[in-house]
Structures are given as C-alpha cells and as structure tokens.
Amino acid sequence: MPINEDDRRLFLKNTLGLDHGYRLGGKLHQPSYYSWLEQLFHSLMQDDTTRRLFQQLADWDRYTYRHSFDVFLLGSLLAHQLAWSNIREVACGLLLHDIGKTAIPRSVLTKQETPTLAEWKLLQTHARHGYDILTTQGYSDTIASMVYSHHERSDGSGYPYGMSASSLKDPIRLLAVVDVYSALSLDRPYLSAVPPHQAVSMIRDEVGPLDPQYVRAFCELLGIFPAGATVQLTNDASAIILDMEEALPTLPLVRDNQTNETFYLPIDQTIQIHQWIDPF
Ligand SMILES: [Fe+2]
Ligand SMILES: [Fe+2]
Fold first, then answer.
1. Which of 4, 83, 198, 271 is 20 to 30 A from 46, alpha carbon to alpha carbon?
2. Which ligand is nearest to the CA of 152?
3. 143, 264: one domain
4. C-alpha to C-alpha distances, 183 to 98, 142, 149, 238, 273, nearest whole angstrom
5. 67 C-alpha vs ligand 2 centroid, how far in Å?
6. Which residue range is the domain that position 235 belongs to?
7. In order along the chain (280 residues), what is the average pLDDT of each group of 10 residues?
8. pTM of the model
C-alpha cells in the first residue's frame, strides 16, 4: 500500500519527538523496521474513525498523544518480535489505549503538581470512557478490552476491577508493560522522565503485577537489562549485569559467571546479550 506524504511526515515527526538516546532500543534505527512501522501506522490511519480519534487526542492533550504514539511503536515492535498474527488489531489498541483521556478535563491532565486523590479517581475513569468510545464505534472486543483493562495487574492490584491474572489476555499484558515503560521514560506534566535503564529496572521490580514473560521479551527487544539480571551471551557464557552507563545502556558492565571476569560488552558487538535467563 503506497503511503501518502501526509502520513509519512506525521509518522516521522512523531517518531523524531520520541527517539532520544536508547529509549526505543536499536530496532527503529534499522530501515526495515522503520518502514514496517510506517506502513502499519499508515494502514491504521486509513480508517477514518481511528484517524479522527488519534487527532482528537492530539488536540486535547499533547503528552497523552505523544505517549500513545510511543506505546504504538514499542508495543507493535514487541508483538512483531513475538510473531503475533493479529498485529494490526493489537497496534490499533496500542495507539488508542488512552483515548478515554479525551473525556477527562484538560486542567487535570496537564496539571504540573501531583494529582490529588480525587483527581486520581477521575483520571482512572479514562479506561471506562475509552471502552465506551471504542465500543460505540464498533471496534473489536480485543481492542476494547485492551483499552478497558490496560491498568489491571496480574496480582489483582490494578483498576478498574482488580482483575486476576487468568482474566488478562495476552494483548493486555503486553500493553501493560509497554505502557509503564513509556510513562516512566517520557516526561510527564508532573514528573520528569527516568533514563531507559532505570525504567527497565523499575519494570523488573514490578514483576508480579506485570507479566514476567513480557517484561523479559521487552528487555530483549530494547537490548537493555536491569542490573542484577542473569543473561546468556552470544559466546554461550552466562553473565550477570553489574552496571551500565546512562549513555550506553546496551553495553553494560557484566561478570562472567564461570571465569568471574568483569568487562564491558565490546563496542564492536563481538559479544552481545543473547537472552535474559533468570527464572521468574
Ligand atoms: Fe491509561
Ligand atoms: Fe497509557
């Protein structure tokens, strides 16, 4: 499907607004992934309702708009890495997951101070508002459930219902991980962003509430792992991540578990991290 110039520019502009440092991992810098995502975005924009809703988000709250595009990029890459067959549907749920924020007063969304308890309660209603908006427009159950349940957590600590792990379908679990990472690693009106390696550590600490399978897959997608993780290297050795520099989180300091040798992963990438092997 040929991409029109407007969508190409919109995709580029939105992507450039997000890609500082390593927060999107390395994949977007590969032309084939960039083109694939650009095409996916264009195919979603072919639907007039999706285009209109996404534009409404842009007009209502720039932070939520930027965050939604970010979640679309990262979540679609993760679904692609996991070889899901319904990526277009999931991508639509990712892009519109916070559409219910258009029903929340702008003064609450853009407030510079930490929200009050009453404001938190009001903010939490965006999940139900989003569900109502999308079901009225005839979106699929999968998409509507992603919007309704993206703040639910596997241990029942989320909202709106405190659902248990067994009720949360895979697209919701994937979205929850990417949503938290995006929220932590982008500036919010009332909170500054943390660097990607810190966001990854915070997500690891949420394993239990967040699905460990998707936390692991997401770290592998970014190529950024929390300190303390045990990984398998491409030379087959197992190693523990000790530390990393903020500017080079994909080249951490590691200790080989057999030889006890400590070294930074080399810039020439002759040794890389193959996978995260900690049991959860
Ligand atoms: Fe949300
Ligand atoms: Fe979100």
1. 83
2. 1
3. no
4. 12, 22, 16, 32, 26
5. 7
6. 230-276
7. 89 86 82 94 97 97 96 97 97 98 95 92 97 98 97 93 88 97 89 91 89 94 94 96 92 96 95 89
8. 0.95
